């Protein structure tokens, strides 16, 4: 066992505090990773505040992890000491069900093991990336291409794959019009990836304050959803809408922006139920869908795609002791566009 420094939530209502946690010894199939950087996802906040249901405390979150391999188990063939690697939202799955066999571990029929706040194979609670090191089964460790700036790359492990996967699945590309609701961590990655896939992209943000950024990332247009005219102007415009918003929205209004046969995919995961009347879907054969992160092979594909297209998140580097302040800024949509913790500041 190794003891490492970390930032943990002591309860649903208290700020995160510096603490220590233990990491298991490296097993035959394991990789020990010294964490260099960890992104802050809105899911971290939903989780530690108990918004998705009760969890065990203290809890270390963080599922956008990059670092270097420092030790490998006897059976490890995929990674070597010194490799630059990443870990996303999952650290294990059953490996045997039809979803795992299809490379869709995120939909494991027995439930995948999340990087944090999940029950691990030994019965302990998994602890995430706001820490100095982590031990992970080699199959859930990704290769991080050298061309991607290590200081910025971490958010691809969640925000990147969570937007890449539905854009791919619903075939965003040349000739498709895609709208992205919410320009936060996920939203800005959805814009960059959809643009790289060749789609025509429109950003639907609460205000016009992020318009210049949307256009710089390649979007064709940016509309303020606070402006009621937006919903009239854009009616019947898009084949695909990716909703990345962390709060409850008027889904009927957004469904009105789809063309006949269009799909609105929810990746945003607000704690409250979203209302969709049947007659928002029926008259135009619309689909309302959800999507969870992406499989391991698809995550590797996304990292390689981002390297090929020179896509990186926009990040603001913080020290670990700024994490509580960063949470407040995420909650007030004051992040451009992902906070990344410099794990060296945990020493
Ligand atoms: P984020 O950085 O906070 O971005 C959310 C964006 O939504 C904000 O920047 C803001 O964009 C918009 N927004 C926030 N509150 C709003 C409100 N009340 N009304 C309208 N728009 C609002 O969060 P994130 O890290 O991208 O995560 C977004 C959501 O995705 C979270 O719920 C998270 O848990 C979920 N998530 C899901 C998966 C999955 O696998 N499905 C994976 C990761 C995260 P504007 O300023 O542009 O309006
Ligand atoms: Zn996440």
Tally of individual helices: 10
Q: List each distinct ligand once.
A: NADP nicotinamide-adenine-dinucleotide phosphate, zinc ion
CATH superfamily of the largest domain: Medium-chain alcohol dehydrogenases, catalytic domain
Which topology of the largest domain does CATH recognise?
Quinone Oxidoreductase, Chain A, domain 1
Name the helix and strand elements from N-terminus to C-terminus, one letter apiece: EEEHEEEHEEEHEHEHEHEHEHEHEHE
Topology:
Elements: E1 2-8, E2 17-23, E3 30-39, H1 42-48, E4 65-72, E5 84-87, E6 90-92, H2 98-101, E7 113-114, E8 133-137, E9 142-143, H3 159-169, E10 177-181, H4 185-196, E11 200-205, H5 211-216, E12 221-224, H6 229-233, E13 238-243, H7 251-255, E14 258-266, H8 278-281, E15 287-290, H9 296-308, E16 315-318, H10 323-331, E17 338-342
Parallel strand pairs: 10-11, 10-13, 11-12, 13-14, 14-15, 16-17
Antiparallel strand pairs: 1-2, 3-4, 3-8, 3-17, 4-5, 5-9, 6-7
Helix pairs in contact: 3-4, 3-9
Bound molecules: NADP nicotinamide-adenine-dinucleotide phosphate and zinc ion (ZN).
NADP nicotinamide-adenine-dinucleotide phosphate is lined by residues 41-43, 46, 158-159, 162, 182-187, 205-206, 210, 244-247, 249, 267-270, 291-293, 330, 333, 335.
């Amino acid at each position: 066992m190794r003891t490492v420094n970390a930032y943990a939530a002591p309860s649903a209502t208290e700020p995160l505090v510096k603490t220590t946690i233990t990491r298991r010894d490296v097993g035959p199939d394991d990789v020990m990773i010294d964490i260099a950087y960890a992104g802050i996802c809105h899911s971290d906040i939903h989780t530690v505040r108990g918004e998705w249901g009760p969890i065990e405390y203290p809890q270390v979150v963080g599922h956008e992890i990059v670092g270097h391999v420092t030790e490998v188990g006897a059976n490890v063939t995929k990674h070597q000491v010194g490799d630059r690697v990443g870990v996303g939202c999952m650290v294990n799955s059953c490996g045997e069900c039809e979803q795992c066999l299809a490379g869709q571990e995120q939909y494991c029929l027995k439930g995948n093991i999340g990087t944090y706040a999940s029950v691990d194979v030994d019965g302990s609670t998994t602890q995430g990336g706001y820490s100095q090191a982590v031990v992970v089964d080699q199959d859930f460790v990704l290769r991080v291409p050298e061309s991607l700036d290590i200081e910025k790359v971490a958010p691809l492990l969640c925000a990147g794959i969570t937007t890449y996967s539905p854009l791919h699945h619903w075939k965003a590309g040349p000739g498709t019009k895609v709208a992205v609701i919410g320009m936060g961590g996920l939203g800005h990655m959805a814009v960059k990836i959809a643009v790289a896939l060749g789609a025509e992209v429109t950003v639907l943000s609460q205000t016009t304050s992020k318009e210049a950024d949307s256009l710089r990332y390649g979007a064709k247009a940016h509309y303020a959803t606070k402006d009621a005219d937006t919903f009239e102007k854009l009616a019947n415009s898009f084949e695909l809408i990716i909703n990345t918003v962390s709060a409850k929205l008027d889904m009927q209004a957004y469904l009105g922006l789809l063309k006949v046969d269009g799909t609105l995919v929810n990746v945003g995961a607000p704690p409250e139920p979203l209302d969709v009347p049947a007659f928002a879907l029926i008259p135009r054969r619309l689909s309302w869908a959800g999507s969870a992160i992406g499989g391991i092979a698809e995550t590797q594909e996304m990292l390689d795609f981002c390297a090929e297209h020179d896509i990186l998140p926009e990040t603001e580097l913080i020290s670990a002791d700024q994490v509580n302040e960063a949470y407040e800024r995420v909650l007030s949509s004051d992040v451009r566009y992902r906070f990344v913790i410099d794990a060296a500041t945990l020493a």
